[in-house]
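Continuing the series of single-chain predictions for the mutant panel. This is the parent chain; the variants come on the following pages.
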Amino acid sequence: MLPVGLCVQLACVWEATARKPGNVHRYRDFEDASYLDFILSAAAIAPVLEGATERPVGQTILKAVQATHRVARTNTNLGILLLLSPLAAVPISESLREGLLRVLDGLDVADARAAYEAIRLANPGGLGRVPEQDVGDEPTQSLRGVMALAADRDLIARQYVNGFEQVFEEGVPALRQALDQGATLEGAIIACHLTLLARHPDSLIVRKRGPDEAHEGSRRAQHVLDAGWTSGRGDWDALEKFDSWLREEGHTRNPGTTADLVAACLFVGLREGAVAAHHRFC
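Parent structure:
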């Protein structure tokens, strides 16, 4: 079994490298974030998450955001860290999903306090304010409790409530199905991304563009899946048209939440042996 830190780094590098529609990848940068920013961030957080079993989850999130802040000028991975930190906290001797539920049950107010500090440091776009347990204030509930308050509007927060259901029951099976059908790893990552996006309007698009455009993004993702991408070897023209639509309006349709979930799926795939480090990428 690969070390946890290496699984983290590979998952983040693969997620950033694959030509997922609407996201930064090896051929496309944003004005405020480049592909290299994501690669540097992956390298920065790997040693922090390697030691995730030795400290509380909130502290791992905070230390990893601090490490990222030293190498990247913008938020590249807050959502990824919110997902990977509890996963990395499960010892390799435990079943990942069962251990994750134990970790989530053990989260407390101190974890929430450290996570809030990390979120403020990362300064993600489009957060706004909420009337209860706002990230600008000091939390009074556990990290899982405050995530539950956001679960109806944020798919990452929802994972803390439902035990990472979208990762284990939707994303990883989509990844595995494409690989089983002979897809390259990049093709399987794109299939995973499209599957999650088709089923769940992206939370970041909702925050930046509203629910109607997020639902339109899901409809278009399903159209691309129907063009053959469930197998990881679909119609590149359909994918590129979707990519162009997502990149309009100054990248405000960036499906960043979905990308974060893909990174978590890749970590789980590596940890459980569904994905091999040596699998042909493209």
